[in-house]
Amino acid sequence: MNSSYAGIVGSPVTPLKADNSVDFETFEKEVNFLIGNGVRVIAHPMHMGESLNLTDAERKELVRVLVRAAGARVPTFVHVSFAGTDLAIDLARHSMKAGATGIVLMAPYHWCSQPRAILEHFLSVADACGGKLIAYNSPGATHVSLSPEILEQLIDRVPGFVGIKDATFDMEAFTDICALIARRSKDIAVYTGIEYLLTSVPIGGSGCFSPCSEVAPRLVSDLYQACVRADFAKARDLQFKVRRLMKVMMHNYPATVKYAMELMGRPVGLTRKPILPPTAEEKAWVKAELSDLGVFEKEPHGWNV
Fold first, then answer.
1. Residues contacting residue 75 through CB under 8 Å, at least 6 positions apart
2. Number of domains in the chain
3. 3-state secondary structure of 215
4. Whole-angstrom Cα distance, residue 203 to residue 88?
5. What is the pLDDT of residues 168-221, one digit of tens each?
6. Within a domain: residue 285?
7. Is 39:7 a contact under the CB 8 Å cutoff?
8. Predicted TM-score (pTM) of this structure
């Protein structure tokens, strides 16, 4: 398991005001809340943070706020993925100048690029910004996969390569990545896309990107610690609970996550279209599930840790 970046990666939503503008003040509260509740790294804006719904100016200002709010307490990574390499380079350079630790980068959206073009995309962005790199493998979003062959070349050619977020939800793919890292004996983290920790940590996983930490950080932390201690009986029960919570959080995400945060006394506004707010029936379901899982009783309310 990677020692430098192992743990839970906080993946904040982007708070919005009533006029649909970004609420930077509340975003600072989010960052402090996640750090206070034990996340090891913060990455923003992931798709959870509506990266595709934000303007270039908003994404750049969020970088500045993230770096300021984190205050070097944890590493900060900026998701800079775009369909165009030059667009990703621009945001990556801005992020590094603003003081971020590094970037999160996917293969280009939409184009279904061939391996040579994917490799060139990653190398161009990494070379241009010079920061740390977490490669993000999400075939569902990009329709291409970062194969072990591509990842091996990135490891060899990008000095700041420190992590891989694997969102294939495929244990064959995840195992192959962990085997690659084990062979190379390098300080590289391998994260699951979301909180499937019991199935990933024993094979060499380093942690996860965590939507659920916005709502139930103690539950996610307990699961991670049980996995690290190899207390698999406890981890199994916790994983079942986290999986049930994930089903709620990932339904019409991030609108459902935002509503759950409101229920926990941490309002962050609505989402931008095409993401619609939960219906009355969905709200009732979310509230009932959180209650049945003990979230209201066991997790922090409000922004205080």
1. 5, 40, 41, 42, 101, 102, 132
2. 1
3. coil
4. 32
5. 999 999 999 999 999 987 889 999 999 999 999 999 999 999 999 999 999 999
6. no
7. yes
8. 0.96
